[in-house]
Amino acid sequence: MTEPLTRPPRKNPVARTRQATRPPAPRSRRALGLTAAAALGRFELQVCQDCNTTQYPPREVCGHCLSERLRWQPVDASGRLLALTVLSHSNDLYFRERLPWRIGSVEMAAGPTVVAHVHGDCKEGDTVRLSLKLDRSGQAVMIALPQEATPNMEDDKTLRETSCDPKFRRVLVTDGKTAVGLAVIQALLDAGATTVFAGDPETWRRSAQFDALCEDPRVLVQDLNITDGDSVERISRSIGGKVDILINTADYQREGGILFNRDMNKAREALDVNCMGLIRLAQHFGPAMAGRAADGINNAVAWVNVLSIYAHANLPAQGLWAMSQAAALSVSQCLRQEFLHAGGVRVVNVFSGPLDHEWEQRTPPPRVAPRAVAAAIVKALREGSEDVYVGDVAQEFLARWRDNPKGLEREL
Amino acid sequence: MTTTETDKKTAPPATGTALVQLMSELASGKITIVDLTETLTPEFPTIVLPPEFGQAWPFRIEEISHYDERGPAWYWNNFSMSEHTGTHFDAPVHWVSGKDQPDNTVDTIPLNAFIAQACVLDCSAESRDNPDFLLTIDFVEQWEAKHGRIPPRSWVFMRTDWSRRDKPVEYLNMREDGAHSPGPDAQVVPWLVKERDAHGFGTESVGTDTGQAQHLDPPFPCHYFMHGNNRYGLQCMTNLDRLPPTGAVIFAAPLKIRRGSGSPLRVLALTPAAA
Q1: pLDDT digits (tens, 9 = 90+) for A108-151
Q2: pLDDT score, position A65
Q3: How far is A207 from chain B (nearest CA, A)?
């Protein structure tokens, strides 16, 4: 069993903060298929469509019949740990800081034998479950996990290096009064966050639910309004060095398309909250988070954007809002690359279908419960995925978008 | 430049005019200037409407440069806000009742409207424990019994000390049933226009009307009657406690916005120095 993490002591204020190093990042273009699967939390390998051979490592043609018809698809992730090695030395800076490090070879039920990082609860000869995770370089790595969950297994060093678990971390929820914000605060408290900084952009608006959450001593209210650069700067100077995870729950959603909805104010306000607000947050909180990407057990690990699936393809009935979501998605892509190069804070995008809140009153069900979004965020942080699609509508949207984006555009 | 123009410029000012006397009394301190304006900051509250309606933008500011790589020797900002943010002036066109009045926009209002005397009605004691305090004809008549009849074309300012409240929570004072702040009732506003020829109405709270004005008849009577009679509004003012009940002169000139319905502005009062 894994030794459970304990709450980290207060940081020594005069010690040099550990600088972030990154595990080796280069991959062949083919191998990026593993990264695509890991980003979604899936386990996929190439399978030959002619002879059905599962491939590893990723390649251009089938290692068995030379066919070019290789397709990424889910495969059986189970296998047997053939051999385990504990590294006591490495010339790579990243691994050197984390020694000793367990690696092993796993013979997969699907065929190939792979080299993987090995969880502390696995021993030679065990049946293991392989998992594809993103490391701090943003690239896919395989981790051999115990077949059945073991106590505190998420606290294992190997897993902690690929996850962004809110346990013992301090989280900023930028707007704690939105339906999603309220649910996220509760979910973080349940997940063992040390502190939840809850942004309140409208202190004059009373919310019994928000006030009730704030009775928990771990919740600290912040006078944060992401449309106001002064406020973002002020709060970042106050708590910016303590934010390990930032979850942007601020949203401005309004009905109406573009052609018959002549309202530039709405368009600007949507952009100001959903896109410019994200930029303001990034510029004021991002650099400090990047600087703390390797700062011990409660290092800065994740930046979460709550987005709509209509960021991918515009829903004309809410075209102005969808436009701002697309802009926010674009910002998130920039941030993701910048954070990766600056130490490895992970940018997680959580895409939801229509939410069950006051701005979707006439949208027929199924609508996504805010607590389902909150649960998906915590799950993504624990498992270390990068793109999350919450609910049936979002999952179906994703499948259609991948299959035929033009067709999806016609049907929205 | 012609000789005549040069002569005009260098000629000593005529003595004994009211303007010369004004400047000399300003210089000597016999007349003081009181700033009735709140500072424009991002935190300053703006009026809140139901979210499906369009909203007035709050004050927002972004630096263009600050003696840095964006502009090495100069500091300046871009800012944005609505016509009705901060201490601001309401033009008659702001309300539907004033939409057909002549010269009803900030760019066409006659200049002499921007300088007017003010009567300051102290309602601070009444408003302290009653955020829904309504100014009535009776209250004005009692005030007149002490300070004299409100002269024609005079601003009527309602002092409540509301500007001292914590912003934004106590200032907006929002509850489940909406905002609660003092203002005039539905009878006193048309009476002030008809019987006293009031120039306009001014307050310290976020609007010229009371917080619960949607429940009066007509709703928002100060907007309805003042603007319907081509009169003006000033709100979000401060320092009204530093004005005498009568005798102050108000300089309140809005920005010259084309077809503007109102404007943030600097409101200055000239008052006789306290004895």
Answers
A1: 999 999 999 999 999 999 999 999 999 999 999 999 999 999 99
A2: 97
A3: 10
Domain B33-272, CATH number (from 3.40.630.10, 3.50.30.50, 1.20.140.10, 3.20.20.110):
3.50.30.50
The two three-digit tokens of residue A335, written as one number:
């941030």
Question: Closest Cα partner for A385 from A140, A101, A30?
Answer: A140
**Residue at token pair 């297994």:** A153
Cross-strand pairs, B268? B35, B251
CA-to-CA distance for A387 and A395, rounded, in angstroms? 12
Q: Name the residue among A230, A265, A266 with its Cβ closest to that of B42.
A: A230
How many angstroms separate the first and last alpha carbons of chain A? 50
Instruction: Confirm or reject contact between A113 and chain B (CB < 8 A).
Output: no
Output the pLDDT for position B2: 46
Domains belonging to chain A, first-starting first, are 32-158 (no CATH), 170-411 (3.40.50.720)
Pairwise CA distance, residues A244 & A293, whole Å = 8
Question: Model ipTM?
Answer: 0.87
- Which of B57, B59, B66 best probes binding to A when mutated, by most A CB atoms within 10 angstroms? B57
Q: Are A84 and A144 in contact (CB under 8 A)?
A: no
The pair of structure tokens assigned to A412 is 């929205």
- Strand bridging mode B134-135 / B183-184: parallel
What gap in Å lies between CA A33 and CA A134, rounded to an integer?
A: 12
| Among the listed residues A239, A210, A207, the one whose alpha carbon sits nearest the alpha carbon of residue A224 | A239
Quick one: pLDDT at residue A13?
A: 86
Q: Chain B within 8 Å of A253 (Cβ-Cβ)?
A: no
Q: How far is B204 from chain A (nearest CA, A)?
A: 18
User: Is residue B247 within 8 Å of residue B232, measured between CB atoms?
Assistant: no
Cβ A48 vs Cβ A55: under 8 Å: yes
Cα-Cα-Cα-Cα dihedral sign, residues B229, B235, B238, B241 = positive
Q: What residue ranges in B133-245 does DSSP mark as E strands?
A: 134-135, 155-159, 174-175, 178-179, 183-184, 200-202, 232-235
Nearest Cα residue in chain A from B82: A265
Per-residue pLDDT of A236-277, as tens digits, reads 999 999 999 999 999 999 999 999 988 899 999 999 999 999
Distance separating alpha carbons of residues A193 and A76, to the nearest angstrom: 34
Amino acid B1: pLDDT: 43
Place of tokens 């009732």: B185
Q: pTM value?
A: 0.93
